[in-house]
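Our working data are protein records whose layout never changes between entries. The record below serves as our worked example for the rest of this section:
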Amino acid sequence: MAEQKKRKGTRTGFTTGACAAAAARAATLGLIGGRVPARVDCELPRGQAVRFAVTEGRCDGACAHAVVVKDAGDDPDRTHGARLTADVRLLPAAPGRLLIEGGPGVGTVTMSGLGLAVGGPAINPVPRRNIADNVRAVAGSLLVRQGLAVRISVPGGEKIAQRTLNPRLGILGGISILGTSGIVYPYSTASFRATVVQGIRVAAAQGQGIVVLTTGRRTEKFALRELAHLAPVCFVQMGDFLSAALDTVVAVGIGEVVIGGMVGKLTKMAQGASMTHAGRGAVDMDLLADLAAEIGAPSQVCTEIRRARTARYAAERMRDLSMLTDFHRALAERVVHDLTGRYPDRFRLQVLVCDPDGNRIAEAASGSCAR
C-alpha cells in the first residue's frame, strides 16, 4: 500500500495501473540489485512520485517477483486489497525489447471496441505505458544488453471480476488494469462515467444497433427481463450519466435507444437534467403536478403534489386514484419529447417504466423500437 494517511472520507487511493507499475519497478530493481526493495518510488502517469510498500519480494537471478497491495483509499472500489503482482524476467535473445504480458487474474479481451487487441490482456494503454516507463527508468543498461518481460497478474482476480462489468464487456478471466491518472478519488464518478462510455462503444463495435440504458440495478434487472431477446452487450447501466451516455450513442452511430427507469430519475430526464443524481438539483414537482392535472387528477391532489418533495409521493397518489399507468405513460412521453428534442433525428427512443419492485407500469416511444 502507498504510505498515505488522511481523515476518513477524503483519503485518495491508487489505481490498479499505478500499483502494477510500482510492482514492476520494484521487481526490476530486484532483478538488477539482487534484492527487491520493501518500498519503491513510482512515477504516476501525470508525473507525481509516490512511494508504495512492496511485499513478497524475491529474485533468483533471472527473474524477480514483487507485489503491491491496492489501497483504494475511501473509495468503495471492487479491487481494493487486490495484490497487483509483477514478475520480471530476462530475455537474453531480445536485447532492448520490453514485453508486457498479462498473467492469471488479468482479464483477456474477447471483443473489439475497447481499444485493446482481441486476445490480449486487459491492460489499458495508459497503465501499459506507465508500467513500461517505470521499468525503463530503473533498468538502464540492462535493457540495452538484454530484453525484459514483465508479467502482471492478480491472484483472485477471476473472482473479483465477477463483481464487475468486465464479463459484459467481453473481458474474461480477470480484472482490467486501469487508470489514467494513477489516483482514485473517494466516491469518484470519473470511473463510472468511463465505464458507461466504454460499454456503449463495445456494443457498437459488436454491430449492435440498439443500446438499453438503465439507471441502476433494479431497472437493469427489469430491462433484462423485458428485453431478454437482446444480447447482453446491449445493456449498459448508465447510472446518472444521461448526457454522457446519449452523447456516446450519437458519436458511435447507434440508431435505437431504450431507457429503463423509475419515476424519480425519469422526472429528472423530463425536466432537462443532463445528470440525474439527487444532489444535482431537486425534482420538479410542478412538472409532476402538471402531468397529474393533464390526465384528470383532482386539483387538490395536484396541489398536494406541488407541495411535496419526492417524485415517489406523486406516484403513490396516482396509485391511490387508480391513475398510475396513465401518469407514468404521460411521464414517459414527456421524457421522449424532451430527449428527442435534445437529440433531434439522432436515434429512435423507447422509455420503459417500472415500479420499485421491478414491475412494468408503462412505456412510450418515438418510433419503431425494440419490442
Remarks:
- The chain has two domains: 13-184, 190-365.
